[in-house]
Amino acid sequence: MDDNDTDNRDDRLRLLFTCCHPALSPESQVALALRTICGLTTVDIARVFLVPEATIGQRISRAKAKIAKAHIPYRVPEEHELPDRLRPVLATVYAVFTAGHHAPVGELDARLDLADEAIRLARVLVELMPDEAECVGLLALTLATNARRRARTDAEGEIVLLADQDRSLWDGEAITEAAALVDSVLRRGRPGAYQMQAAIACLHGSAPTYAETDWEQIAELFGMLEVRWPTPVVRVNRAVAVAEVAGPAAGLALLADLVGTPTERWHLYWSARADFQRRLGQTEAAADSYRQALECPCNDSDRRFMQRRLAELEDA
User: Fold this and answer.
1) What is the rounded CA–CA span in Å between residue 86 and residue 182?
2) What is the 3-state secondary structure (H, E, C) of 23-36?
3) Which of 37, 121, 277, 302 has the greatest number of CB atoms lying within 10 Å of its CB?
4) Rounded-to-integer distance, Cα 166 and Cα 185, Å
5) Are 214 and 207 in contact (CB under 8 A)?
6) The Cα angle at residue 116 between residues 111 and 122, in degrees rounded to 5
7) CA-CA distances (angstroms) from residue 162 to 95, 138, 251, 254, 308?
8) Is the pLDDT of residue 188 over 90?
9) SS3 sequence, the chain?
């Protein structure tokens, strides 16, 4: 890799810090950075954050208007200003990775370039701020998650669930690197949200088989993560882990608080409900949940997978 590539990555990261000016709301900082620096569309950003497209458009417009009205200088912040802007920068890089690992539109792996770019940015972040444990946690999280990408689809491009993936296709070197990074920061005794997620991803990556996955520890980590980061995405993932430990009824119970909330716009919420209901023998309810999921925005790969599951239930 030549010096120009390194310089370009460093420049992009510093521009992210520039967009994340403290005068803007955190949501506006991230939306503006994703749109103007990272090149994500408004649709991409809306689906990553599970909000209406119009909401993202308004956040970006308000951010630009505030920059113009307040004459906020568009300059790279000084080194001492970086820590105060780190949180939205981390959120931006993680959102870029999410959009690359699980594309909001098109095929599941349509934007793998974004996942690669996010990993590169995370590495530069660690180089820039090596004492920030959450930077290390984010890098470990992206590495461990990305390590499984070759096994996520079959030869026809259809989704392969974690339980059915060929683990020989996983990137063992990336998982080993991620695990070492997690170990190095957890010893500091200040586990943050990205470190916890990285630990979960490494537990998946180190399990020889799906059956041998340490689901109890994963469920416990998701419980700790939800205290720090109480989002619907965390709740749904926690429910999936708890269902592996205590059964699908326990997983379904954890989703009860999300009924009637904006989370119902997220297809993976409905898909999780449907799976729990299917495992409980609630065929009609499971089919209805898949129909609800198919009403939500999602990429083509997810849509075909849910259509197959729904067809199986209808045949049954």
Assistant:
1) 19
2) CCCHHHHHHHHHHH
3) 121
4) 30
5) yes
6) 130
7) 22, 21, 18, 21, 17
8) no
9) CCHHHHHHHHHHHHHHHHHCCCCCCHHHHHHHHHHHCCCCCHHHHHHHHCCCHHHHHHHHHHHHHHHHHCCCCCCCCCHHHHHHHHHHHHHHHHHHHHHHHCCCCCCCCCCHHHHHHHHHHHHHHHHHCCCCHHHHHHHHHHHHHHCCHHHCECCCCCECCHHHCCHHHCCHHHHHHHHHHHHHHHCCCCCCHHHHHHHHHHHHHHCCCCCCCCHHHHHHHHHHHHHHCCCHHHHHHHHHHHHHHHCHHHHHHHCHHHCCCHHHHCHHHHHHHHHHHHHCCCHHHHHHHHHHHHCCCCCHHHHHHHHHHHHHHHHC
Residue reference for tokens 């200003």? 81
pLDDT for 305 equals: 98
Separation CA 280–CA 155 (nearest Å): 31
Cα→Cα distances 104→100, 107, 261, 266, Å: 8, 8, 21, 11
Backbone angles phi, psi at 159, to 5 degrees: -65, 135
Give the C-alpha separation, 45 to 205, whole Å. 28
Tell whether the model's pLDDT for residue 225 goes beyond 80: yes
Provide the pLDDT confidence category of residue 301 given band limits of 50, 70 and 90. Answer: very high
Least reliable range by pLDDT among 38-47, 218-227, 289-298, 306-315: 38-47
Q: CA distances (Å), 101 to each of 74, 96, 212, 247, in order? A: 30, 9, 25, 28
